[in-house]
Amino acid sequence: MDIDSLAKSEFPSINNIHSLFQLFIAQLIKDFSSANFDSDFITHLKPDVQEIQFAIIDQLEKVEKISKTKLRNLLYRIDISEKQILKLSKNKTENSFNEILSELIIKRVLQKVIFKEYYKAKAK
Q1: pTM score
Q2: What is the spatial distance between Cα 32 and Cα 45, in angstroms, rounded to a whole number?
Q3: Are 99 and 60 within 8 A, CB to CB?
Q4: φ, ψ dihedrals at 82, nearest 5°
Q5: Which residues contact 23 (CB under 8 A, 6 or more apart)?
Q6: Nearest-angstrom CA–CA distance, 48 and 106
Q7: Is residue 43 within 8 Å of residue 29, measured between CB atoms?
Q8: Which of 29, 36, 115, 114 is nearest to 74 (CA)?
Q9: For the segment 4-52, what is each residue's pLDDT rounded down to a tens digit?
């Protein structure tokens, strides 16, 4: 069974990977905007994990220089704990702090989208 077939069977509102990506982008915009981050860069992203990660790293680096509080607000909004950061930091010692954060952001936002779609389908 391919990913598109699995998505259609488990999540009827996700017709294909493109639909999943659009939901991911919408959630990422919502989370960044709610934390008072610039979210304009998100609308131009393509479904490429590296491109998304580099774009998020760029935003994190810009904000990191200005306000640690703003960064904490983003992590709180997305629901990334200090424990998760420390755990991944221990496993990925060669990665920068912002690389680790961007990976956690991508995973958590995608997880939120999948959970929402799963429970939306279950409710029907």
Answers
A1: 0.84
A2: 14
A3: no
A4: -60, -35
A5: 14, 113, 116, 117
A6: 11
A7: yes
A8: 36
A9: 444 455 555 556 677 889 999 999 999 999 998 989 999 999 999 999 9
